[in-house]
Amino acid sequence: MTETTQTAETTETAGVAERAAERVTIHHDVAHPEAFTREPLGWLPWLTPLREDELTERHYEGLVEPARAKNDYFALLARDPEVLGARTRTDLDIFYNTDGGLPRAERELAAAATSRVNGCVFCASVHARLAVKESGRDADVDRLLADGVTTDLDPRWNAIVAASVALTATPPTFDGSHVRALREAGLADEEIVDVINGSAFFNWANRLMLSLGEPRLPRRRASA
Amino acid sequence: MPDVINTVLDVAPGDHLDRIRDSRPAAKENSQRTYDALFTPVDTADVTRVERLAVAAFVSRLHRQEELADHYAVALGAVDANLLALVVTQADAGLTTGPYGTYAETGLAAESSDGPRFAVSEEGALELGSRLSAALEHAHLLVFRPREASPEALQRLLDAGWSTTGVVTLSQLVAFLSYQIREVHGLRVLATTEA
Questions:
Q1: Nearest by CB to B189, which of A148, A171, A174?
Q2: Where does the pLDDT of residue A20 fall: very low under 50, low under 70, confident under 90, or very high at 90 and above?
Q3: What is the ipTM of this complex?
Q4: For residue B93, with 0-12 CB atoms within 10 Å meaning exposed, 13-18 middle and 19 or more buried, which class applies?
């Protein structure tokens, strides 16, 4: 094989990869969820994620956890690694820093309620599962998914859901009445900040998940 | 760079609100890092700084969040006053309340609600150009009816000259602003609600 041929082949391969990256992928014959669900869902990207062989140190820094290179959502967001890295570190502190503040279950409740309002079926499924895992309140969480954010849970959860919903409106309608309701339900200001952070963050996350790809139902095993 | 959320809220280090924000120090620090990465980017090949500021001025004005709308209007006005005037005109034509939109999920059809689908005016498109016009239309979709996002909407961005990486940055920009605006709104309400 001559050197000229090799160069031509390399250029051709790069050209194909380049064109593949600059197109939208429409997924046919995919089973979609048809309502909010706690079932684990998959997610299919509409744009081309970075392949593992395209990743540099800069991308891995943005991915935070190297295993995320295999996840289409993070591998797509890795196209802007500085923003992805800062996004992920914001997310982890808001939801997993348990040094004081709101119980984990109620941070997940704020995320699920926000996703329910914005209409992110994928995000709602993840955070509804986590809210149940942390609280054990499967019937309440299922009612939030099925009936929506005005369903009656208990005074404390109602106040957290109502605050998340008001902050999610555009423009936000969150006001002093929501803060007073949260305080009456027993939340200190350090906990109210966790509600604000959790809901505000899901206004970020929902818009990425909803606009860069779509949820899919897991493939059923033939024997199931 | 000074913390932009504290700056627009006029919060000084050690204030009640600053101390509460410090209970989530990595979130505070990385919210600022995201802002820096979006507006002082290491790479502007896919989205220019002026495009970023134009989208930010548009999105913050759509949210009617006074402090951040002023912040981004000043930043855009400093580099292109004419573009700021065009963006303000488009934002004011796009004001509405959300979220709304038609669900793709059949089981949620009863919850679908209608609302305006914003398009840049013909005159506006001539002055803004196709790239920025497409970006503002997509930003309006993400702000008010994210449940209607679609591969076709992304195709319109590619057709207008956006790269795949540029679409990722644009999406992060609008999504981050949706977060930052709610942080400022929520923290301001918390700080001003008497115990």
A1: A174
A2: confident
A3: 0.98
A4: middle
